[in-house]
Specification:
Blueprint (H helix, E strand, L loop, with lengths): L1 H31 L6 H17 L4 H22 L9 H23 L14 E4 L2 E4 H23 L1 H11 L1 H6 L4 H27 L7 H14 L4 H21 L4 H4 L2 H13 L14
Antiparallel strand pairs: 1-2
Amino acid sequence: MSYFVQVVVDGLSNGAIYAALALAIVLVHRATGLVNFAQGGMAVAATFVAFALTRAGVPVLLALLAAVVFGFVLGALLERGVMRHFERGDPDTAVVATIALLVLLTGASAFFFGYEPQPFPSLFPNRTFEVLGVFVSFRSIGTILVLIAVMVGLQLLFRSTKLGLAMRAVADNPESSALSALPVSRLLMIGWGLAAGLGAVAGVLVAPQLFISPGMLDFVLVYALAAAILGGLDSPVGAVVAAAFIGVAENLAGAYLDVVGDDLKIAVPFVAVMVILVVRPQGLFGRKTTVRV
């Protein structure tokens, strides 16, 4: 029984990594209506800023705050300088543009910092404690608590603030929002900035476990996209729950299904995601959209 609980706890720890980036994907989707493949590249770029500051002797917490500010500015500039030209065009073209941005940002990070993975200082103590035979790390607990705080903050932002409600209106119908005198371009810019700032938080939380490198979040981005889609692209709670489900399902499959093992365990949660989406296409916590014709 203790082994089962340990596998679940380790799965939740992995799920926290996926959820960190999934929340940023949900944020930019709720603010702009776009699935942003460049989210991982922006997060890595901001994390490298924090990395450079820590190497210069700046405390990790201050480096994190600086990375969030850098991420916000980077996201706003990319929206203003690149994505703005695709606002009224084909959404598929905009998605391709975000993939191009991902490649560009990854290359820029490699140019300035190299491809060699490097250790990143942790925001939380790198120690573990034992509870009834189960080992839990302070870093995992800290990451989960930060994610819960971010999840609650996003829920409040989009449900209880004028800014959040305005961003949701712009994402749902930019034309009607413009006719209602909402500053559409400015709100889209803010949405990209907030998502990139949140990506910086995700990167700083994840980097100590993965080691920082330009491709640090490439694999995580796949899981994060799956979690965001499974949970419902407009639901921060859904993204966190789905990421936890994916992390636990992957670990349990690798531990208990001999035919799966470590090599094929990645496929198990994605098969489950496909099955669930067939039954509930809008995701676990997503809203069902009704289109009148």
